[in-house]
Every structure is written in structure tokens, then in C-alpha cells.
Design a protein that fits this description.
It is an enzyme of class 2 (transferase). It holds the Pfam family CitG. There is one protein chain. This protein is mainly α and about 280 residues long. Helices cover about 65% and strands about 0% of the residues. The chain has two domains: about 5-150 and about 260-270, no CATH class; about 170-255, no CATH class. It contains 14 helices and no strands. Helix 3 runs parallel beside helix 6 and helix 10 (about 185-200) packs across helix 12.
Length: about 280
């Protein structure tokens, strides 16, 4: 079991490392984008860490506290997906319980808090759902039901019903491969991000641009990943792809969210957390 202050520190480290990484299409230290700056995300990481690591809090309370603090500090949604993915990991690390048990033991307050956090963050491309619409003030369903309903169209919701299978199946193997190449933390994060972008259609791209564009972005990322030599620190090569996506208003935010969560998972385990 890890203390809240350690969890908060590791969360901040994961967020800041992800910002140092050249993640094509996203905001990063090499280039801004989508009317957002790196400073917005740095501030968001700082102010959301206490809520994310709040002692004894449930998943929903952690997400809502982080989103509320972020909204007050930067006035926009910079980390809803990050908090949704990291909150269960933080609770598992603090309690020493398996992640699947933490995900299975959510209560009604978790759903109310998560729905409130989503409304407060007002993520782009959210739209409306026929069932379990988060934009209403109606009493939400059990969180597990809501996530299962959204899972076919949203990878973060899918994580809640698959035991975070994308992290164990995509992110952690890519992280291990990058570390084996001797890459530093930022370039390791770049490699993890491109692995996600190449493996599955990004949910944020899918919501805003549709399946045809999302599939094309994945295919392009897969081709790029096949020819990348990470040991050469390919800044120019990645920046070309980065500019192409940003010129089209394409922001693969879900891949960036999963990158942070993957780094956070690895940091927690390296620090001694045993939730898998």
C-alpha cells in the first residue's frame, strides 16, 4: 500500500513526462496545438494531484476533485480522460487491493461523481447517448453499467470493463520495449503513445471525426511506427506527422490519456504497489 503523497508525486511525474514526450497530434514540449499550451497541462497536473490521491476516496470522488480543481485553475478540460484512467490505479495502490476488485466494488456515489465530473469537464465531441446520457441530471446507473454501455465507442470506458486490458496489452509491452532500447523517460513515453495510436482507433478522434478518419489515423500511425528508429531520437520525422494531424484539427487525446496511465501504472508498480 502506498501513501497518498507518494501516489500524488508519481501521478505528477507521469503527467509531466508525457508532456515532455513528442506525441504526434497532441500538445507537448515541442509544439502547442488545439488552442492549448503545455503550461495548461502542467498546471492541471499540479492542481489535480491532491484530489487524485485523496486518502480513502472512491474512484468517483477522485475524478470529480481532480476535474473541479483543473476547471478552476485552467478553465478547460485538459485531463478528464487521464483522471478516469488514473483514479482506479490510485485507489488500488493506496488500498493494496487488486485493480479488478477495485473496479468491481464501485458504489452509487462513484457513478454520481463521475457523471458530474464529465458534465463539468464538458469534453469535446461528447454528444448525447440514448441510454445513460451524462448530460442530464437524472440519477445515473451503476458505474459498471454505464461503462459497459459506452465501451464499444470509448476505450476509456472499455478499460473499466476489461480490467485495463489496453494498458497491459498495448502500453506496458511498448514501454518495456522502449526501455530495452535504452530510451530516456520522454522518448519512452513517445514510443508508448505511438503504440496506442497505431494499435486501435483513438476514441477522441472517433467521436469528433468519425470512424473513417479514426481508422485512417490509426493506419498512418502504424506505418509511421514501422519505420521509426527510436534510438535516433526522430524529432523531425515525428514533427511532420504532428503538423499534419494538427493542420486537420485532429487531436488523438485518448492515446495521450492512456500514455499517462501507462506511465503511472509502471511508476506505482516500481514503487511497490501490487494491484495486478
Amino acid at each position: 500500500m502506498l501513501p497518498p503523497e507518494t501516489i500524488a508525486d508519481l501521478y505528477r511525474t507521469a503527467c509531466l513526462t508525457e508532456l515532455d514526450a513528442l506525441k504526434v497530434g497532441n500538445v507537448h514540449a515541442y509544439a502547442a496545438g488545439h488552442r492549448m499550451q503545455v503550461a495548461d497541462f502542467v498546471r492541471s497536473a499540479e492542481v489535480s494531484a491532491p484530489g487524485l490521491a485523496m486518502a480513502g476516496a472512491g474512484i468517483g470522488a477522485r475524478v470529480l476533485a481532480g476535474v473541479a480543481a483543473t476547471r478552476e485553475a485552467v478553465g478547460q478540460n485538459t485531463n478528464l480522460g487521464i483522471l478516469l484512467l488514473c483514479a482506479p490505479l490510485a485507489r488500488a495502490a493506496e488500498t493494496g487491493r487488486p485493480l479488478e476488485e477495485v473496479l468491481a466494488s464501485v458504489v452509487s456515489a462513484d457513478a454520481r461523481d463521475v457523471f458530474a465530473a464529465i458534465r463539468l469537464a464538458s469534453p469535446g465531441g461528447l454528444g448525447r447517448a440514448e441510454r445513460y446520457d451524462v448530460t442530464t441530471d437524472a440519477e445515473p446507473p451503476p458505474l459498471s453499467h454505464a461503462m459497459a454501455e459506452a465501451a464499444p465507442r470509448d476505450r476509456i470506458a472499455r478499460a473499466y470493463v476489461t480490467g485495463f486490458a489496453d494498458i497491459t496489452g498495448i502500453g506496458l509491452p511498448a514501454l518495456a520495449e522502449a526501455r530495452a532500447l535504452g530510451l530516456d523517460a520522454a522518448w519512452t513515453a513517445s514510443a508508448v503513445h505511438l503504440a496506442y495510436l497505431a494499435a486501435v482507433p483513438d476514441s477522441h478522434v472517433l467521436r469528433k471525426h468519425g470512424s473513417e478518419v479514426a481508422d485512417a489515423v490509426r493506419e498512418s500511425a502504424s506505418a509511421l511506427r514501422e519505420r521509426i528508429d527510436w534510438t535516433a531520437r526522430p524529432v523531425a520525422q515525428l514533427l511532420v506527422h504532428d503538423a499534419q494531424l494538427k493542420d486537420r484539427g485532429i487531436n488523438p487525446g485518448t492515446s495521450a490519456d492512456f500514455t499517462v496511465a501507462t506511465l503511472f501504472w509502471r511508476h506505482l508498480v516500481d514503487e511497490g504497489a501490487a494491484f495486478v
